[in-house]
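User: Hey, quick favor. My workstation is busy. Could you predict this chain's structure for me?
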Amino acid sequence: QVQLVESGGGLVQAGGSLRLSCSASGSIFRINAMAWYRQAPGKQRDLVASITSGGSTNYVDSVKGRFTISRDNAKNTVYLQMSSLKPEDTAVYYCKARQAMGVYEYVYWGQGTQVTVSS
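Assistant: No problem, here it is.
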């Protein structure tokens, strides 16, 4: 089993920055892709950024140039550096990890961390 724990959320004014962290523990072997999603009240959970085991990244258009996803394999941690934050970035941010186990695949979610951007 894999457990994901997010941290770094909080309240920030528009234009400010936050750095989210997601640490994996447990049976962390064979984890390949990791990603950050976000969900605002009454909205669906949407992909924000993803990163593969090889370091390839992908971002939703609305955060390109402002957010950076990275990972530290030695620490089993993925980060989301958020800059130039906007009120529309307000949401609960969730970490996701995908684990390949032979012919099986598992997906794990963190509990989420609240990000609130005030105007």
